[in-house]
Amino acid sequence: MEAPPPSLLEHYKSKEPLTCGHVGALTEEETDKLRQLWQLVIDEFDRTDSEPLAVLFRLGDSDAAYEDGGLTSLSFEPLVPLSSKDRAQSESAIQSMPRSESERQFESAMQSELATQSESAMQSELATQSESTTPNGSTTLSNRIARAGSGLLGWMSSGRSTPASTASDEDAAAQTQQRRRESVQDHVQRTQQHTKPLVPAPFVPLFGQPEHTRTFRAAFWQAATQTRNADSWVLRFLRARKWDVRAAFAMLRKTLEWRAGQAIDEIMFHGESQLHMHTMESGLAFACTRDRLNNPVFVIRVRANIARERSIAAIKRFLCWQIETSQLLAAGADGRVTLVFDMSGFTRENVDLQLMRTLITLLTNYYPETLGIMLIYVNSLLFAGLWALIAPFIDPDVKAKIILARNASGLAPFIDRKCLPVELGGSKAFKYEYVVPKINENACMGDAKARVVAERTFGDAVDAYERATRMWLKGSSDDVSMNVGHDRDSAREAVCVAADALDPYVRARTLYHRLGFI
User: Fold this and answer.
1) Backbone angles phi and psi of 376, in degrees to 5
2) More confident residue, 509 or 190
3) DSSP three-state, residue 187
4) Residue 160 and residue 162: Cα distance in Å, rounded?
5) Which pLDDT value is given to residue 384?
6) Hey, which of 130-134, 135-139, 176-180, 258-262 has the most confident mean pLDDT?
7) What pLDDT digit, counting tens, does each position of 299-351 carry?
8) Cβ atoms 180, 309 nearer than 8 A
9) Inter-CA distances, 141 with 113, 145, 151, 188, 381, Å
């Protein structure tokens, strides 16, 4: 009888990366599943009656759609809106959206709790004065947790009320509106007093694709080359769907439809220039170190999440840009990243259940097997009550990757203290500071002739890899197990080299390039 695979914690203790189901460590059965999935992909490439994938929200269209009240988001789930006008529009849109049973149960539970909170509001003060105490007069921990849980939803709800407006409120609202709209491009032009664009060329899709559609093949290769190994990317869908080939292909196709629909390639082409300046400089999310398995660590500072200071479209675009960029940092970790939710200093205006749900939706539905672990760094009874409400509705596979840590000691099994930033209790001297793009850092993107050459080389490499893959699929099982496809290995490396050469022409440089992380 085979020994069970090591637990996640055991991997971190031994500093041995997870290899089961990954390239170089596949069983014969897993290799056969990989071949079956590749066959479905190749068959889809060859289809002549296939409908192209529609681009639903181009970069310039998404803000207009938001202004018109269109709340279809990058995750297909709108975040909690900010203004009363947005709230009314969103509530109407949300009511018309299909709901899973778990979501309906969650919403029902929330409504029930809110009703209970309203009914017992007057009794809360009396309960506070007469609550049970220990012999020395201190409040018991269980009572404190109970109070936190019972008051949590009322606390959250009170943060969403709309107070009567005053002149000072209107001035503040005007400043907030201006702040929430400024892009990095706008900021650089305003502060450096010039009109030169940070990306000196219009967006042009790969492989000569039209602006409003992508073929399955073009969308596949635009996504697969992010990981430097197409097999690694395809395997993510097999692992995510428990090696069910048909289910994995359905998930892969849905992901490509989503990527094309939301114009992810265009978001990455323009990069930070079209991202929200305040979100970037606030340090809402950033990479700063690596964990014990060498996965890049992204810190999400919840206290920096103030919904009124950015638009719905801005936060979705920001999240997708961060996840896409994480793949550059995670090339040696097979695309996995570690998230640390820093809950220190958060208040009611930082609570955004939809934001966390959107991030988890992106990572599980459209970036499978990207989340390594999620560490929630918190020492708050209020969050304990919030977690009690959320936990039952999180997918078990995702929930297994979530670890609550009350202090630096709780993070230490996963991130060495020497690598942990000082603000999280470690000794790494890292302080987040946003470095705006340099004026000419994307100058090569304006060299159309050089891009044509780089794209042609990339296209030739992809063609050669596809030919080698077709030969690999025709080979016998013995051939596959002996890795006879040396031509395929060489072709894969050629694709990586060509993709690296093409990258500066189709992806704006990033903060992590400027910081020297890439």
Assistant:
1) -105, 105
2) 509
3) helix
4) 7
5) 67
6) 258-262
7) 999 889 887 787 778 888 899 999 999 988 887 666 789 999 998 887 778 77
8) yes
9) 22, 6, 15, 51, 9
Q: Which residues contact 358 (CB under 8 A, 6 or more apart)?
A: 73, 74, 75, 77, 79, 316, 319
Size of the chain in residues: 518
Is the Cβ–Cβ distance between 79 and 358 less than 8 Å? yes
Q: What is the pLDDT of residues 220-273, one digit of tens each?
A: 999 988 777 899 999 999 999 999 999 999 999 999 999 999 999 999 999 999
**Distance between CA 437 and CA 450 in Å, rounded?**
22
Eight-class DSSP state of 366: I
Strands 213-214 and 337-342: unpaired
Residues forming a β-bridge with 298: 287, 339
Q: How far apart are CA 301 and CA 323, in angstroms?
A: 16
Selection from 215, 224, 210 nearest residue 252 by Cα: 224
Six token digits for residue 354? 């939809």
DSSP letters, 405-468, are ESSHHHHTTTS-GGGSBGGGTS-B-------PPPTTTTGGGG-HHHHHHHHHHHHHHHHHHHHH
What is the band of 355 on the pLDDT scale with cuts at 50, 70, 90? confident
Mind giving me the DSSP string for 84-151?
HHHHHHHHHHHHHS---HHHHHHHHHHHHHHHHHHHTHHHHHHHHHH--B-TTSPBPHHHHHHHHHHH
Return d(Cα 335, Cα 327) in angstroms, integer.
Answer: 5
| Best CA proximity match to 62, nearest among 312, 360, 307, 325 | 312
Q: What is the pTM of this model?
A: 0.78
C-alpha 380, offset from chain centre:
25
Exposure string for 341-364, b = 16+ CB within 10 A, e = fewer? bbbeebeeebbbebbbbbbbbbbb
Alpha carbon 305 to chain centroid, angstroms: 15
498 - beta bridge partners? Answer: none
Task: Provide DSSP, 227-272.
Answer: GT-HHHHHHHHHHHTTT-HHHHHHHHHHHHHHHHHTTHHHHHHHGG
Compute the distance between CA of residue 428 and CA of residue 430 in angstroms, rounded to an integer.
6
Q: Between the CA of residue 43 and those of 36, 46, 50, 280, 518, what are the distances in Å?
A: 11, 5, 11, 42, 36
Q: Is 407 helix (H, G, I), strand (E, B) or coil?
A: coil
Residue type, position 347, single letter: T
CA-to-CA distance for 454 and 449, rounded, in angstroms? Answer: 9
**Cβ–Cβ contacts within 10 Å for residue 127, how many?**
14
Q: Which residues, including other chains, have CB under 8 Å from residue 91's CB and lie 6 or more apart?
A: none
Among candidate residues 154, 110, 72, 192, the one with its CA nearest the CA of residue 393:
110
CA neighbor of 254 nearest in space, from 368, 102, 93: 368
